[in-house]
Each structure stands twice: as structure tokens, then as C-alpha cells.
């Protein structure tokens, strides 16, 4: 291996009311224990890009059931909204060393989540895609 840390779990949150990344959204990750209780696993806040990297490593994200909880109530209250949900959550089973990107679209009364699942990736922001017009006409 390269010796660089792996980042198997990344969270990205978008504010669909303003059409911008949701900044400073609290994120908590829990792992389901053998006794069926949720144990704290990791936490952090989204960046200016609405992203949270470095929540865990390949070595720590072992097989099991995990819950990602987004503190949507605090986010919307800080913007002057009265949100319907206390939080948004995603519960998923980890069964192999893969990279998970959990994405959430938020509004004060609804949320939608999706996940991208791929092989392990390095921590850090995803590579940008440079879309250039190569002389093609678009209709």
C-alpha cells in the first residue's frame, strides 16, 4: 500500500432551498452493537463544501450495521426556519472494504438521501471534472 490513510466514508449535504452546500451540519455515525444498542462511532461537521471526510479508516470500518445521523434541526434553525425533522438518518450494512459516499438533499420539511458505493479511495475532496466544449454543437 501507499501508506496513505483511506477514507471509506464521506458525507455530502446540499441545501436545496438555497441551492448551495449545507455548511456546518453536524454528523454523527453510530455502530450497532451485539446488544442491538447504537454505539457512537464517529462525528464531525460538514465543510464549506458541504462535505465531511476522514470520519473513519478502512481498518476501523469493519463489517456491521451503521447509522449516519445528520443534525438537520440545528442547521435549519440557524437559518431561521422551523424544521419538521429532528434529524435525517441513513442506516446501512457494511460487508466489505468499499468507499461509501452518503449524499443528502435537505429542505426544512423533507430530505432525500442516496449513496455511491465504490472501491476504496484516498481521503480528500473528489477530483474535479473539467467539462470543456470541444467544438461540439449542443442542441
TrEMBL record:
An individual GO BP term: purine nucleobase metabolic process
TM annotation in the entry: none
The Transthyretin/hydroxyisourate hydrolase domain, residue ranges: 4-122
Residue(s) carrying 4-carboxyglutamate: 39
Superkingdom of the source species: Eukaryota
MF terms in GO: hormone activity; thyroid hormone binding
Pfam families, A to Z: Transthyretin (PF00576)
Keyword ATP-binding part of the UniProt annotation: no
Single GO cellular component term: extracellular space
Record keywords, A-Z: Gamma-carboxyglutamic acid, Hormone, Secreted, Sulfation, Thyroid hormone, Transport
Keyword Transport listed: yes
Family assignment from sequence similarity: Belongs to the transthyretin family.
Subunit structure: Homotetramer. Dimer of dimers. In the homotetramer, subunits assemble around a central channel that can accommodate two ligand molecules. Interacts with RBP4.
Main function: Thyroid hormone-binding protein. Probably transports thyroxine from the bloodstream to the brain.
Name under which the protein is recorded: Transthyretin
Amino acid at each position: 500500500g501507499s501508506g496513505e490513510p483511506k477514507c471509506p466514508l464521506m458525507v455530502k449535504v446540499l441545501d436545496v432551498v438555497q441551492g448551495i452546500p449545507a455548511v456546518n451540519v453536524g454528523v454523527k455515525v453510530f455502530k450497532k452493537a451485539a446488544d442491538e444498542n447504537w454505539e457512537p462511532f464517529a462525528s464531525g461537521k460538514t465543510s464549506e463544501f458541504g462535505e465531511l471526510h476522514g470520519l473513519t479508516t478502512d481498518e476501523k470500518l469493519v463489517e456491521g450495521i451503521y447509522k449516519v445521523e445528520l443534525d438537520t434541526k440545528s442547521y435549519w434553525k440557524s437559518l431561521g426556519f422551523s424544521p419538521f425533522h429532528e434529524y435525517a438518518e441513513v442506516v446501512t450494512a457494511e460487508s466489505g472494504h468499499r468507499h461509501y459516499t452518503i449524499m443528502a438533499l435537505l429542505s426544512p420539511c423533507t430530505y432525500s438521501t442516496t449513496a455511491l458505493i465504490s472501491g476504496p479511495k484516498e481521503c480528500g475532496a473528489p477530483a474535479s471534472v473539467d467539462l470543456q466544449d470541444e467544438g461540439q454543437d449542443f442542441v
